[in-house]
Amino acid sequence: MVSLVKRFGSLTFGNAYLMLGLTTLFWGGNTVAGRLAVGEVSPMIVVFLRWLIVGSILMTLCWPRIRSEWPLMRAHFPRMILMAAFGFVGFNTLFYIAATDTTAVNLGIIQGSMPILVLIGSVIWFGTRIRMLQIFGILLTLIGVTLIAAQGKLDVLKELAINPGDGVMLIACVLYSGYTLALRNRPQVSGLTFFAVLSGISVVTSLPGLAFELSTGTAQWPTETGWLVVLYIALFPSCLSQIFFMRGVELIGPARAGVFINLVPIFAAVLAVSILGEPFEWHHGLALALVLGGIWLSERKAGG
User: Average pLDDT for residues 105-131, to the nearest whole number?
Assistant: First the structure.
């Protein structure tokens, strides 16, 4: 029985598609959690508590391995601080701020732009070859994101009166795309050890934002519902998703792994409509088709 369990775990953790599929499912749920958190807990309290929970658990469990693998991480530590500060704390902070000004459907669809951002970053930083079909895919995705930002209204686009929440979410996606690219050259230690250290760093780097909320009187500690939201966010989008995503990048590389984020808007839309009862309007459907179509075209060549 033990051997069967180990074999199952090995096959599961070695399956990039399963790892990345679960990652995007949990991230899709995070868009719903972000909306549920509004009025129940403030953004920086969420960010601080999620990483405090994850960091406390992982640092305790992984401490022996962290000590043994520290020599391999020491030279990379400044980069790891930046990865945690921008990829984890920065992205999460902007994500929950955006959730106060836009819908879960919009959050999910805009998050679907990250594969294209990763592809563009791969071209700039790693010299990844890009073909005409990929350029066309990028343009389709950008049109889809613009359609969401303009709320499907030409007048809004003409006046450039973009929903602030959508703009903040787009900036958050840029930060996480940078984190994804940085994973390509992460220290050669186990993914769990690496993530445990990043989680500990995230606790520290979330303190300035927490201090700002406390000093301005905008901090709200979780209500009963808020604690449920925080626990979901800590265990699934924060802990399991990050471990699964790093494993997926390790197995198939950042450009191809980033493409799986195209599942986030699908999961987010389904969960937002079914759980939150948010309306799914014509511009959501068109934007989703454009984003997914653009990513599909890009992946055909990226993986070819």
Answer: 76
Summarize the chain as % helix, strand, coil (round to 5): 85, 0, 15
For 91, 167, 194, 284, the CA distances from 160, given in Å and listed in that order, are 24, 11, 42, 19
Helix, coil or strand: residue 187? coil
Residue-wise DSSP of 234-251: IIIIIIIHHHHHHHHHHH
Amino acid at 137: G
- DSSP letter assigned to residue 223: -
- Do residues 110 and 148 lie in contact, with contact meaning Cβ atoms separated by under 8 Å? yes
Please report which helix (H) or strand (E) contains residue 212, including its range.
helix 207-216
As a whole number of angstroms, the distance between CA 94 and CA 78 comes to: 22
Residue 148 identity: I
> For residues 14 and 8, what is the distance between their CA atoms, to the nearest angstrom?
10
Q: State how far the Cα of 57 lies from the Cα of 202, in Å rounded to an integer.
A: 13
**C-beta neighbour count of 82 within 10 angstroms:** 16
Number of CB atoms found within 10 A of residue 297's CB: 21
The predicted-structure confidence for 189-248, as pLDDT tens digits, reads as follows 888 899 899 999 999 999 999 999 999 999 999 999 999 999 999 999 888 887 888 888
Among 259, 270, 242, residue whose Cα is nearest residue 295: 259
pLDDT confidence of residue 153: 63
* Residue 250, both tokens: 């390790």
Q: Do 89 and 51 meet the contact criterion of CB atoms below 8 Å apart?
A: yes
Q: What is the pTM of this model?
A: 0.73
pLDDT of residue 260 exceeding 50, the answer is: yes
Pick the closest to residue 91 from 130, 39, 53, 46 (CA basis). 46
d(CA 19, CA 83): 21
